[in-house]
Write a structure and sequence with these properties.
The complex is a heterodimer of chains A (about 80) and B (about 525). Helix content of chain A is about 40%, strand content about 10%. With about 80 residues, chain A is mostly helical. Chain A has a two-stranded antiparallel sheet. Chain B folds into 2 domains: about 15-35 and about 390-515, no CATH class; about 70-305, TolB, C-terminal domain (Neuraminidase). Chain B is about 0% helix and about 50% strand. In chain B, the strands form 9 sheets. In chain B, strands 1, 2, 3, 4, 5, 34, 35, 36, 37, 38, 39 and 42 form a 12-stranded mixed β-sheet that branches. The mean pLDDT of chain B is about 95. Classes of the chains: A mainly alpha (about 80), B mainly beta (about 525). The interface of A and B includes residues 11, 52 and 65 of A.
Chain lengths: ~80, ~525
């Protein structure tokens, strides 16, 4: 069941830490996807947890956490 | 259908009573179509009493900051409970500076950060007793009055807005539609999925975040949306054809939100498209007059009974013109109040209130200085300036015949020049110096009774002029550039207060004329 966008307990700071030992380029989505999936699991969260994105113009009604991060990866610099 | 008018019987008298200036400036309508209370030109004055026009006060320099070439990109007042509010400036030198006392004769600036963007102004918000700043270039950061803390994991957006106990961020590079939410109650933590794209890929970008308290307003350049649920991010389009030009142009005044769009000044109506209220100054919003690219840095300020917006004119990078709006002077049946112009050497503004002091501070548009706006002086940082109020072409309801102007009476204060122009010509037909300056008590033991001025005069006085003028259409221009200040009487019950005001003011005029005849 999808949860609200602000109910996912992973912060952007967590993602910066997850990206620290990622040696690929952020554009290599599959590799990054796998990396983030593993890191999210390591932190005790479910990377496939669905987020309610029904109000988001560009997304389906539900989107997984790891996809939410990947779709926003450009904002991490 | 044309309005009927009479020619009048030759020799018949006309008494015309001026109807004040509270219609503001009207540069949209033909000069013969202006209402009796509208002006073709209004500049460097204030409509501080309905119907009156007074020269504005000047600007007081408060010393320099940084290097000579530095200018202020944005300024903000950071209010702190129990302590003096700090004025914060972000400069083109890349410095973010603060002062605890902008009211000092010479401001002492402290440094918050250096090496920041030299072109993109910071957006500021105060939340949970801290100041937050972001400009889309440098890391989002906080300042608690003594310590600057960069928060590099936060989204790096150009615009911040506090709404529903949450910090909202937009304007991240290459993500022009995206709005981020912080965690509720914590502006320093952002969750990975707390973002939404608004009208993604519409070719537009977010230029402003605003709020009326109930909704978060997301302004793109060509449309505006509002978010009504901070949890689900539910949103909808409110205005599909008017957008926001500048994040810094949004302001609230007595429960209403005003902002700048490409089409002019707008009043936000909440659930229906905004209303443009600046119809009378429509012709200002022309690329041959304004630097359209600089509209994104236009700022709004509120002071006393008015709201102001800054504009860079064509060929100028920084603001050179201020447009002021008087919502409280809206007449019955009118959809908007009057507008007037100011030409202050000012680009950015912030209000500062502490203890008994309430000031408007501004940044100089051509120097590394902060100024007190509308301070108790008659010059702008030492430079004289002119005020002007010019009526439309008055025909006394007899447009086809000449009139002889026999007598004119004015109510006002101070000293100024009255210029008369006639029949749409640009050259000055008649000039009169109107002296309604109040003399002090100049009586001394050496003076002779009934000869010298004795005792103070009233501040408001009547002046009489004999124009001896022949006109079909008459334009009155009130103007001067005197560097002095005057005083304005404010009656509070039985006690009259005398406030420092611009050097002169006109509160009414009457004209006695006689109909002549056709004279071509």
């Amino acid at each position: 069941m999808a949860v609200k966008a602000r109910d996912i307990p992973i912060t952007r700071e967590d993602v910066y830490e997850m990206l620290e030992d990622f040696d690929g380029q952020k554009k290599h989505t599959k590799k990054l996807h796998d990396h983030l999936e593993k890191k999210i699991k390591d932190k005790g969260h479910n990377p496939d947890q669905l987020v309610d994105t029904s109000t988001n113009d560009s997304l389906n009604d539900e989107t997984s956490v790891v996809d939410m991060i990947l779709l926003d990866i450009e904002s991490y610099g | 259908m044309a309005k009927s008018a009479t020619t009048g019987t030759p020799g018949s008298g006309i008494v015309s009573r001026g109807q004040g200036f509270d219609g503001g400036v009207n540069m949209r309508d033909a000069v013969t179509q202006l209402k009796p209370n509208e002006c073709r030109k209004l500049e460097n004055g204030v409509l501080d009493e309905r119907g009156g026009f007074a020269k504005r006060l000047g600007m007081v320099g408060k010393g320099a900051f940084g290097l000579a070439g530095h200018r202020v990109l944005n300024m903000y007042t950071y209010y702190r409970v129990g302590q003096s509010p700090q004025v914060i400036i972000h400069t083109t030198g890349g410095d973010v500076l603060y002062t605890n006392n902008p009211d000092a004769e010479t401001i002492t600036w402290g440094t918050i950060a250096t090496g920041q963007s030299t072109t993109q102004p910071y957006s500021f918000e105060t939340f949970a007793s801290k100041l937050y700043m972001s400009n889309g270039v440098d890391p989002y950061a906080s300042w608690d009055g003594t310590t600057y803390t960069p928060l590099p994991s936060a989204p790096k957006g150009k615009y911040l807005r506090l709404w529903k106990d949450t910090m909202w961020v937009a304007g991240v590079t290459n993500l022009p539609d995206r709005v981020y939410s912080s965690e509720p109650g914590n502006a320093e933590s952002f969750l990975v999925s707390a973002w939404i794209d608004i009208a993604k890929g519409d070719g537009d970008q977010i230029f402003s975040l605003a709020t009326d308290g109930m909704f978060l307003i997301i302004g793109k350049r060509n449309r505006a949306m509002s978010m009504h649920d901070p949890v689900s991010f539910a949103n909808r389009v409110v205005d599909f054809e008017k957008g926001f030009e500048s994040h810094f142009s949004v302001t609230q005044f007595e429960g209403a939100i005003y902002y700048l769009s490409r089409r002019g000044i707008c009043l936000w109506l909440g659930d229906t498209p905004s209303r443009i209220i600046s119809g009378k100054i429509d012709s200002l919003f022309d690329p041959a007059i304004l630097n359209l690219d600089a509209l994104k840095f236009s700022q709004a300020y509120t002071y006393e009974n008015r709201i102001g917006w800054t504009f860079a004119e064509v060929g100028e990078a920084a603001a050179t013109l201020q447009v002021e709006y008087y919502p409280r002077l809206m007449g019955e049946g009118e959809s908007a109040g009057p507008f007037a112009f100011q030409r202050m050497p000012a680009a950015c503004f912030t209000r500062w209130r502490y203890g008994t002091i309430d000031r408007l501070f501004a940044s100089h548009n051509g120097a590394n200085q902060v100024l007190q706006a509308f301070g108790p002086v008659g010059t702008d940082n030492g430079a004289a300036f002119s005020s002007i109020a010019e009526t439309g072409a008055l025909d006394f309801d007899r447009p086809t015949v000449y009139k002889y102007l026999r007598r004119m009476r004015m109510l006002g204060r101070g000293q100024f020049n009255l210029l008369m122009l006639r029949n749409f010509k640009v050259d000055i037909y008649k000039t009169f110096v109107i002296d309604m300056a109040s003399a002090g008590d100049t009586w001394t033991p050496d003076d002779i009774w009934n000869v010298d001025t004795w005792g103070p005069q009233a501040l408001l006085q009547e002046a009489k002029v004999h124009p001896d003028a022949y006109v079909r259409f008459l334009t009155l221009r009130f103007t001067d550039s005197d560097p002095d200040v005057g005083t304005k009487p404010i009656p509070v019950g039985s006690r009259d207060y005398r406030l420092i005001a611009g050097e002169w003011g006109v509160y009414g005029y009457n004209i006695d004329a006689t109909v002549l005849g056709v004279r071509d």
